[in-house]
Write a structure and sequence with these properties.
The protein is an alpha/beta fold. The chain folds into 2 domains: 2-231, Spore Coat Polysaccharide Biosynthesis Protein SpsA, Chain A, CATH 3.90.550.10; 233-263. It is built from 8 helices and 7 strands, in the order βαβαβαβαββαβααα. The protein has a 7-stranded mixed β-sheet, with helices on both faces. The longest helix has 29 residues, at 233-261. The termini are far apart. The relative contact order is 0.14. The model is unreliable at 246-254 (pLDDT under 50).
Length: 263
């Protein structure tokens, strides 16, 4: 199995956080999350090769640091995530003989990615294949709408549909081309980071002992959490939430008093 990690321009990443983080903070956050993902993927023995796809200079530096490949997005002469991933999977299929039997497409905003959950994904995908020897596995987000990880057969090209409700659309595509498909729900992979609420959920996790942070047993989201705390983002977000809660309680209390006075 090969693993594919398509990465947006780091400056343009995480636009939905623009109301909470500055441009430089969003770039730093995305960089930290990608490092957490690569820490796991580069050391994972189940991958024959790991490939980043990006034109951002930071991606090339990360690829060199973690000892993985980096392909230029421009080299595919297509635009958009769906077209880029489709082209990269096709290239993987053409590179070796025999071709890889599966490609896992992972996204860079999964800082809680773990080797143990990757084991589950691969085991469940292998069981899905059975006699068919082809199939599609989708690991969805906590809202059960997105496709945080796809495991597909490079010999069976899919019409990819990353974006809103991609999980349902990918299932429909599997039915269209007649291959077995399944949706997996894994708690860590489900926690992609797109919004302030997602960051607050991440910050609410109990802290793991940093002494265990080694390539063999990395602390989940170690670089992401360190960045959020050292940049002052964690404290700012927690303060904003506390102030919002206090304001909500004040409004509720005033409404209750006004209602009581009308009785």
């Amino acid at each position: 199995m090969w693993a594919l990690l398509p990465l947006k321009d780091f400056v343009q990443a995480k636009q939905r956080l623009s109301g909470s983080l500055t441009v430089s903070e969003r770039r730093g956050l995305f960089h930290a999350m990608v490092e957490d993902v690569l820490t796991v993927m580069a050391a994972y023995p189940g991958f024959e090769r790991v490939v980043l796809v990006s034109d951002d200079p930071a991606a090339q530096l990360l690829a060199e640091h973690y000892g993985v490949d980096c392909w230029s997005e421009r080299s595919f002469a297509v635009q958009g995530l769906n077209a880029v991933v489709t082209a990269a999977v096709a290239k993987i299929h053409s590179l070796t003989t025999p071709a890889p039997t599966a490609v896992m497409v992972v996204h860079g905003d999964l800082p809680l990615l773990s080797a143990s959950e990757l084991d589950i994904v691969i085991k469940q995908h292998s069981e899905l294949l059975g006699a068919a020897q082809t199939g599609l596995s989708i690991v969805t987000d906590r809202h059960q709408r997105g496709s945080n990880i796809l495991v597909c057969d490079p010999a069976q090209p899919l019409q990819l549909a990353y974006g809103q409700d991609s999980c349902a659309q990918h299932l429909a595509e599997a039915r269209r081309i007649g291959i077995p498909a399944q949706v997996l729900h894994l708690p860590n992979i489900a926690e992609d980071i797109d919004t302030r609420a997602d960051l607050l959920r991440l910050l609410a996790l109990p802290e793991a002992p940093m002494v265990a942070n080694t390539p063999e047993t990395p602390v989940l989201a170690a670089k992401t959490l360190t960045f959020l705390r050292e940049a002052g983002i964690a404290q700012r977000l927690i303060t904003m939430r506390s102030e919002a809660n206090a304001e909500a309680l004040r409004v509720h209390a005033e409404s209750a008093v006004a209602e009581w006075n009308t009785l």
